[in-house]
Amino acid sequence: MIIVSDTSPINNLAAINHLHLLHQLYGTVLIPEAVYQELTDPNFPVAGATEVQTFDWIQTRAVSDRTLVEALSNELDIGEAEAIVLAVEIKAEVG
Question: How far apart are CA 17 and CA 84, in angstroms?
Fold first, then answer.
């Protein structure tokens, strides 16, 4: 199954030491570059930062449709916008 995640599920599950549940349920989890940046910002350390950099089942992907990202960014933060666009682009089964 192909799924895309935004920041909150990874951050929250890592905070309670249950990030492994995403892997058990879905296998590979894709995140857009903005989510990776949100989770690994050295100025704002959060749970999940190490995991997105080291777990091979969490993979970062670039989004292509920057126009759609910009349109969605009027209502959502950049990580959420990119996650939605990535899910659409790869035809994810769960987003």
Answer: 26
Residue 48: CA count within 13 A, CB half-sphere: 26
Residue 67: phi and psi, rounded to 5, are: -65, -45
Q: Where are the domains of the chain?
A: 3-90
Among candidates 32, 28, 48, which has minimal Cα distance to 40?
Answer: 48
The C-alpha torsion from 25 through 1 and 82 to 49, rounded to 10°, is 40
**Residue 4 neighbours by CB under 8 Å, 6+ apart:** 29, 30, 31, 32, 83, 86, 87, 90, 92, 94, 95
pLDDT digits (tens, 9 = 90+) for 38-93: 999 999 999 999 999 999 999 999 999 999 999 999 999 999 999 999 999 998 76
